[in-house]
Amino acid sequence: MIVADVVVPHPDEVFVAGEWVAAGDSGEVVSPATGRPVAEVGLPSEKHALAAVQAARDALATWAELPVARRVEICGRFCAAMEARLDDLGTVWAVESGMPVRYSRTLHRFAAVAAWRTLLESAGNVLCDDSRESALGAIVLRREAAGVVAAVIAYNGPLVTVASKVLPALLAGCPVIVKAAVESQLIMRIVADCAAGAGFPAGALSILCGDAELGRTLTAHPAVDMVSLTGGRMAAQAIIEATRHRFARTHLELGGKSPALILDDADPAVVLKTLVPGATSGGGQVCAALSRILVPERRHDEFVALLEQAWEGLVIGDPLDPRTQLGPLASPAVVERTEGFLARAVADGARVVTGGRRPAGFDGGWWFEPTLVTGVARDSDLAQNEVFGPVTAVLTYADPEDGLRLANDTSYGLSASVYTADEAKGVEYARRIRAGSVAVNAFGPALTAPFGGVKGSGWGREAGPEGILEFTELKQILLGGRR
């Protein structure tokens, strides 16, 4: 099948246990830019999910007992194949999700590629045994695979999540069943095709693009030892409920309401350079998006004027056009959710500075302008909850301590940024913000280091060398009887 001049392999099959097998049903891939179908693909069934779990269980001993260097070699071939097809991956992702190719080129090369190269380089050292002495004898500390992993990933960054979640689990020795979003049919077929030629043992990797019911089948399965989710809170609560009876491990990355804390001495040019893409890239459909801009009261009007100019200068258009900075949203549901948040904010007294409607000239598809809102109440829905759409709130604070309180005044704790002319002061403030990742005069996180949330943004870390350890169990081996 050819989509936007890209060959998409095995459109009527699904990737189970390293092989392409006949699909259970079929469905349409709809372009968010036009609202019209662009492809028809095969869909996985419960039968496929059960077969993937059984194959993963059968492969556990084989994959986990391979020398780390051998696992690195196989995963390295997988990553090299994906690197060779980055342009194709970005193109089909634009078609099915609306994420502009301009955005994917940056995200894939500087996040996904950087993440998996770091993992491949560090796995050998991270997973080696450690030795200690005790009064009872020498101790060997050994890292072993946590078991079969179900990795549930979202539509808004599938390749990055493969790099930060799936690769660490594979390198740790865990067979993985990927449950990707239904909106990721095309990109994940290319990813699976790259995996098919890498040399994984049968059962070490399955990739299923299915609905929530398929996810429930996987997460509730007694042979799944660990569930790693990138998604929303309701999905996380369902996973906790499904796994608690068997004490399966969970790793949850649940989004955020990330603040950009602009201190009184911040240089606007430095702020705008990373704050604008940090707040608007991906149409706000980014877990770490800087969706709350916190400014000193005395500089509110100055920054709002600059932000308004920046927001209105963003190029909205065809996601396949390399000039486009913002494309359509992923689905009608995302548009409806965005409109709901905005309507409630305005009803609460907030003011729309710019945006807030469907852009002119777009007759089909699911479009919404990047929207900047000020006068937002601290306890409002828009200030407290994740929109996952292109609406950014501006809030003011009275003094630095009030700014810190405001930055922490949310149930989320995934990411944040601090802008200041004094880096040391920025680091001091970063230490006092409750978030898994804080950038100073930048937008993060860097996926060559571990990333994850606190509070309602979940638990566990992925990416970086430590991300591999998330998918291991630590075993103590005591060597007694020595003289």
From TrEMBL:
All residue ranges annotated as the Aldehyde dehydrogenase domain in the record: 20-477
Active site per UniProt: 253
InterPro entries: Ald_DH/histidinol_DH (IPR016161), Ald_DH_C (IPR016163), Ald_DH_CS_GLU (IPR029510), Ald_DH_N (IPR016162), Aldehyde_DH_dom (IPR015590)
Keywords: Oxidoreductase
Record Gene3D superfamilies: Aldehyde Dehydrogenase, Chain A, domain 1 (3.40.605.10), Aldehyde Dehydrogenase, Chain A, domain 2 (3.40.309.10)
Top-level lineage group: Bacteria
Secretion signal span: none
An example molecular function term from Gene Ontology annotations: oxidoreductase activity, acting on the aldehyde or oxo group of donors, NAD or NADP as acceptor
Family per record: Belongs to the aldehyde dehydrogenase family.
Protein name: Aldehyde dehydrogenase family protein
Organism: Amycolatopsis australiensis
